[in-house]
Specification:
231 residues, alpha+beta, 5-stranded mixed beta sheet, two-stranded antiparallel ribbon, 6 helices, globular, binds iron/sulfur cluster, binds FE2/S2 (inorganic) cluster
Length: 231
Amino acid sequence: MKTVSLTIDGKEIRAAEGDKILWAALDNGIYIPNLCTLRDALQPAACRLCFVEVEDYSQPVTACTEPVREGIVVNTRGAKALRLARTGFELLMASHPVDCAHCPANRSCELQVIAHHLGAKLKTKRFRKILRQLPIDYSNPLFIYDPNKCVLCGKCVWVCRERLGIGDLGFAHRGFERVVTTFADEPIGKSRCQDCGECVLACPTGALTFKDNQGIVESGCREGMETAAAQ
Ligand code: SF4
Ligand code: SF4
Ligand code: FES
């Protein structure tokens, strides 16, 4: 694949033409908030957190969908992009129960990385807090599913269905009621889940966590934590 030059935050880098700006940035140690995308997945831009500004564009664009082109100049810290990302993040957190000190994902959670990066609070007061009160599913021998901490990023669903071909997880309902559930809406331990734990590794929050807390450091958010910490 052809390699091109582009500039992100004043740093000249090289990346494969057509790759997405998000991956070009992350590969070069430049953090952009993101929740809903995987490198091998064609997912719709759902979380709306990865806004960046591109020179000569009138509006910010989502870095996970915008392709790399020769000579483009990207600013991840532009005021418009950050405002959009902060608003999206605070809206998301308005329905998220924040109890980090007691959460198995504490210190490996992508929400914490994003809050730090955006200078936003996890406990936002900007929007009215409306929490779901859904039962936590302890039925799987390996992991716990807490739907209240799910941000509906879709990573677990994609991994289970597309990468592994199992298809046990999916979305049900719409709007505020939208939730990740199993094929027949059974507890995970009674579903056709094969206990591989790949969904847990993909989950960026405390919604899916291993019972023995092992593997959390292997989760997709570790890359984000290291990149954000280095900036
Ligand atoms: S999922 Fe993340 S933000 Fe939410 S309580 Fe757990 S560690 Fe905190
Ligand atoms: S359970 Fe985790 S990976 Fe699955 S949609 Fe919710 S936050 Fe995303
Ligand atoms: S990572 Fe780009 S919209 Fe979610």
